[in-house]
Design goal:
The chain is of the alpha+beta class. The chain has helices spanning about 105-110, 120-130, 145-155, 160-180, 195-210, 215-225, 225-240, 240-260, 265-270, 275-290, 290-295, and strands at about 5-15, 20-30, 35-40, 45-55, 55-60, 65, 70-75, 80-85, 90-100, 135-140. The chain has a six-stranded antiparallel sheet, with helices on both faces.
Length: about 300
């Protein structure tokens, strides 16, 4: 089955749900031929995933979930998640990355207050979106058709396409929240600290893909900020320094390699950017309470539900 490919970023596109504004940072689609290592999004960031075909697994919130055609899930602020594809039937995924930007007076009043003419259902959609940092289930709202129309608009770019994209994105968000209400969402209050959108994506992509080489100086140069401003920005988004965040990214990738490959400890150590196996082993044991060898041979209890 063929699916339309999308690659649209550096957008200036915002959706309004009452007083909640969703800044759309990128829209992408494609096949997962390689698994996505464990990572988490910064405060105010929400990533919507829809799987129209293929199979795999999602590991999130310490649990494992099967992914199959029709799987829909949201990974919001602070949710550790890892996506593992089935090489014999690679997943195709539509992915939309939002930054939540509520505006107005105090947080509660601007989202849930009755002033300004917002309808009750729009306020409820905004509340459920913000307060659901993680949800997974089978789509019951026929969103595949909307994603396909969205892809067609993006790829053809006919006159008026931006207006139609906005309409379809609103339909997708409403469909997502309707899925929540049918499937008992897990509700948590998500903090809403924001950073300039392009800079936030740069930080997240560097941590996810360039953790072996990025430094605070090179990241500052990319962001167009001073080193001190960059340090403050990273700490604001993650609650830790860049050094701590990069160490976490290395160790998370090492844990994935220990679980999914036959690489030696030395090879994994080198692959995640350590100059010595001893240093890697020391950091890994401090992080997991087990040496890499012991971690690899531990007994794993399945948590699929």
């Amino acid at each position: 089955m063929g699916h339309p490919m999308i690659q649209l970023d550096n957008l200036d596109l915002k959706l309004s749900l009452g007083r909640l504004v969703l800044n759309v940072l990128y829209i992408k689609s494609g096949f997962f031929y390689h698994s996505m290592p464990e990572h988490r999004h910064s405060n105010g960031s929400y990533e919507l995933h829809y799987i129209p075909s293929g199979h795999g697994r999602l590991i999130a919130t310490g649990r494992e979930f099967p992914l199959s055609p029709g799987s829909l899930y949201m990974t919001g602020p602070g949710i550790d998640h890892e996506q593992i594809t089935d090489p014999s039937d690679p997943m195709f995924e539509y992915c939309i990355f939002f930054e939540a930007l509520p505006s107005g007076r105090n947080h509660h009043e601007r989202l849930y207050g009755r002033s300004g003419g917002d309808s009750e259902d729009i306020r409820e959609i905004a509340r459920l979106f913000l307060e659901t940092p993680f949800w997974i289930g089978q789509d019951s709202r026929q969103l595949q058709h909307v994603f396909e129309k969205l892809a067609w608009e993006i790829n053809t770019r006919s006159i008026g396409y931006r207006r139609n994209i906005t309409i379809q994105l609103e339909q997708i968000v409403i469909g997502l929240v309707r899925n929540y209400t049918n499937n008992q969402p897990t509700l948590q209050t998500a903090p809403l600290k924001t950073l300039d959108d392009k800079r936030m994506v740069l930080i997240e992509n560097n941590i996810l893909y360039n953790y072996k080489h990025i430094t605070i100086r090179t990241l500052a140069d990319q962001l167009g900020l001073s080193v001190r401003q960059t340090e403050r920005a990273v700490h604001k988004q993650y609650g830790m320094s860049l050094r701590e965040k990069l160490l976490e990214a290395r160790l998370q990738e090492a844990a994935r390699l220990l679980d999914t490959t036959l690489l030696t400890i030395g090879e994994i150590s080198e692959q995640v950017g350590y100059q010595s196996s001893e240093s890697f082993t020391s950091h890994f044991k401090k992080w997991q309470g087990l040496t890499p060898s012991a971690y690899r041979t531990r007994t794993i209890v399945p948590t699929i539900q």
